[in-house]
Amino acid sequence: MEQENSINTRICPYCKSENPNISVCLNCGQKIKTEMPNPKEFVTRPLFVTILALFSVCGFMRNAYAIFYTKNTETIPVLIILAGLNGLMAYGLWGLKKWARNVTIISYVLNTVLLWVIPFVIWFVPYEGMKHFFELLSVDISKSPFQLMQFSLVREAMYKATLYRAIICSVINIAILRYFYSERIKEMFSDNPRFYIGAS
After folding, report:
1. I need a labelling partner for 131 at 20 to 30 A (CA). Which of 39, 100, 112, 198 fits?
2. pTM for the full model?
């Protein structure tokens, strides 16, 4: 009987008086708010989403470290933006925030596009791009045939490396994007993941 009475009563948060199971306090007249449970508390975060969140944390730490140790001041704003984006993604993915899915999709789409920038530039302006690369290393490729041959070998290796990297990373990014467009993940990142509450 005591348990039944405790279930059917509410404590007013303002005057601390005990009331029946109603929305208005009989003593002070204040509204007694009923706190609804957060639906996300019933959702188990998928392992893959957890892994992506941890990768975002690593990306944040890497970019934050580079901000303090880079010698090129022009790249600092870019590193700050990337660090902020990674930190935002990590927080959103860990908490299954609704906006985190959109941020993740935009991030991986941009990443896929940027992966093809370097192969595109090398393909259309190979000599100038590699010449600038050798100038940074203080190598004059116009002095000897041996250095010219070195230039050709490095250029060919750079073609293959950037192309393979773009292809492999693009396939991975597309798989991640497909995962985030699945109905299960859409429902999980929504404000009210209904079938997960029912399943729990």
Report:
1. 112
2. 0.62
Q: Is 100 helix (H, G, I), strand (E, B) or coil?
A: helix
Cα–Cα distance for residue pair 148/146, rounded to 1 Å: 5
Return d(Cα 94, Cα 169) in angstroms, integer.
23
Number of helices (H) and strands (E) in the chain: give both, helices first.
9, 2
CA 116 to CA 98: how far, in whole Å? 29
Asked whether the beta carbons of 10 and 19 are under 8 A apart, the reply is yes
What CA–CA distances, in Å, run from 62 to 48, 55, 66, 83, 87?
21, 10, 6, 8, 11
What pLDDT, in 10s, does the model give residues 98-128?
A: 899 999 999 899 889 888 887 777 666 655 5
CA distance 194 to 200: 10
76-95 burial, b at 16+ Cβ within 10 Å, e below that, comes to: eeebeebbebbbbbbbbbbe
Those residues whose C-beta lies under 8 Å from the C-beta of residue 69, and which sit 6 or more positions away, are none
pLDDT, tens only, 149-174: 555 666 667 777 888 888 999 999 99
The dihedral formed by the CA atoms of 144, 146, 152 and 154, expressed in degrees to the nearest 10: -120
Residue 87 · residue 60 · CB < 8 Å: yes
